[in-house]
Amino acid sequence: MAERLIVVGADAGGMAAASQARRRRGRDDLEIVAFDRGRFTSYSACGIPYWISGLVDERDDLVARDPATFRDEYHVDVRLRHEVTAIDLDRREVVARDLAGGGEVRERFDTLVYATGATPVHPGWARTEAAGVFGVQTLDDGDALRDWLERDPKPRRAVVVGGGYIGVEMAEALIVRGLSVTLVEQADQPMSTVDPDMAGLVAEAMRGLGIDIRTGVTVTGLATRDGRVTGVCTDAGEFPTDVVVLGLGVRPNTALGEAAGLPVGPSGGIRVDRRMRVIGVDGVWAAGDCVETLHRVSGQPVNIPLGTHANKQGRIAGINIGGGYATFPGVIGTAVTKVCDLEVGRTGLRESDATAAGFQFVSVVAESTNRAGYYPGARTMSVKLIAEKPGGRLLGAQIVGWSEAAKRIDTLAVALWNGMTVDAMTGLDLGYAPPYAPVWDPVLIAARKAVDALAE
Ligand SMILES: Cc1cc2nc3c(=O)[nH]c(=O)nc-3n(C[C@H](O)[C@H](O)[C@H](O)COP(=O)(O)OP(=O)(O)OC[C@H]3O[C@@H](n4cnc5c(N)ncnc54)[C@H](O)[C@@H]3O)c2cc1C
C-alpha cells in the first residue's frame, strides 16, 4: 500500500512540499492529498496589491497552478473548500469539513505537512459587518475589494489602517486607482521593519506622493451609516472614508496544530528542526508562515512571514519526505517593497534588534545616488549599515531610495549572510557604469562610512 501524505494548507509552503515529494517519489509509492479551505491553490497573495491597483489585470494571473494541473501533472489530489478541523496524531487521521457541499471527511495519513499560513490580526473594533471594510489576505479578499472599488457610487476616499509593508503597498494601490488615501499608524512611523530614521524617509516620501500619513494615532472604532462604513474613529478624531483596508499584521496560524499537540515556540510559530520536522512529533512536518525559524544573526527563534521563506521551507520538507536530505539554514530577514517609485529594502538586524541581542555596534547612513550624478534620472538613495563594534561584521542594512534602490539590499544580504566585515565590503567588485551607479556604488560608500565610524 502506498504511503499517504496529507497536506494541510495548499499554498506556498504546502504545495512546495507536495511538489518536491512527488518529484522524488512516484504515485504508487506516495499518495498525496492536499486540503485548503480557500477557493485557490498555489496563489500569490504578494501580487494582491498590484491586482488591486490594476497593474495586474486578472485575478487568475496570480494563480500559478490549479487543482487540475496538480492532479494531471503532479498526481496530487487538491481538495479546495475543505477545512481541516482536527488532526488526530494517535489515529493518524485528519477530519475535514466540506465547506461547499457540507459534510465531513476523514483521511488517514502516514506523513503530514502542516502549512496553514498566518492569521490576520483583527482587533475588536475591526470585527464589523459594515460594508466597505476589507482585509487583503486572500484572493477572495482581493475580489471583494476590487468589486467595491468598481461599484457605483465609486469610493473616492480610502483609509488604510496599519503602516507595515502590506499597508504601504495597499496605500500605493489605492493612490494609483485615483483615491485620496489616508494611512493611519499607531507607531511614530510607518514601516517599523526599518529603523525610525529610515522609516522617516519613507513617510516623508509617501507624503510627497500625496498619501496623508497619520502616525501615533490609535483607531478606536468604525463609523457606519446604513450598513456602510463612513469613517475611521481614532483618538485623533474621525477620518471620513468610503473604504477601509486593514493591514494590521499577522500571527502564525497554529490553533489547529496546537490542539493536536504540535509544539509552539516563543515566537508563536510551530517548532521545527532544520529539516522542517515538527519537533518531537513523528512523521509531521511544517513550513511557511506558521513556523518558527532561526535568525542567523541574533541566534533567536523568529517568525518572519514571507513567501520567500514559505517556498524554501516547503521545498526542504518535500525533499526530506521524498527520501532526500536537506536543511533550512534560517533567515536574516531580507525584504523589499515599494510605494510608487520609492523603494525600501532591509536585511539583518535593526538597531533595536542589535541592542536586544546584546551587540555593540556603530550605525551609519550614507546618502548617494542610484546613477552617476550627471546621468539622467539620477536620484537619491540612503543606505544604512549597522556593524558590530569592534570587528566591523555587518549586522544589518536598510535602503530607502528611488529606482534601483531596493534590490541593492541583496548585495548586502549576501555580505551579511557570509559574515563579511564592512572593511572587506569596501573592496567588493561591484558593477559600475553611469546608468547604473556612481563610480562608488552606494553600498561601497556606506561601507566606507561604516569603516570610518568604527575607527572613531
Ligand atoms: C497582500 C500581501 C502581500 C505580500 N507580499 C509579499 C512579498 O512581496 N514578499 C514576500 O516574501 N511575501 C509576501 N507576502 C507574504 C506571503 O504571501 C506569505 O508569506 C506566504 O503566502 C506564506 O505561505 P504559506 O504557505 O505559509 O501560507 P499561505 O499562503 O497563507 O497558505 C496557507 C493556506 O492554508 C489554508 N488553511 C489554513 N488553515 C486551514 C485549515 N484548517 N484547513 C485547510 N486549509 C487551511 C489557507 O486557506 C491558505 O491557503 C504577502 C502577503 C500578503 C497578504
TrEMBL record:
Family that this chain belongs to: Belongs to the class-III pyridine nucleotide-disulfide oxidoreductase family.
GO molecular function: oxidoreductase activity
Keywords: FAD, Flavoprotein, Oxidoreductase, Redox-active center
UniProt cross-references to Pfam families, sorted A to Z: Pyr_redox_2, Pyr_redox_dim
Keyword Acyltransferase recorded: no
Cofactor: FAD
FAD/NAD(P)-binding domain location: 4-312
Organism: Micromonospora sagamiensis
Domain Pyridine nucleotide-disulphide oxidoreductase dimerisation: 336-438
Lineage, opening ranks: Bacteria, Bacillati, Actinomycetota, Actinomycetes, Micromonosporales
InterPro entries: FAD-bd_OxRdtase, FAD/NAD-bd_sf, FAD/NAD-binding_dom, FAD/NAD-linked_Rdtase_dimer_sf, Pyr_nucl-diS_OxRdtase_dimer
Gene3D superfamilies assigned: FAD/NAD(P)-binding domain (3.50.50.60)
Name the record gives this protein: NADPH-dependent 2,4-dienoyl-CoA reductase/sulfur reductase-like enzyme
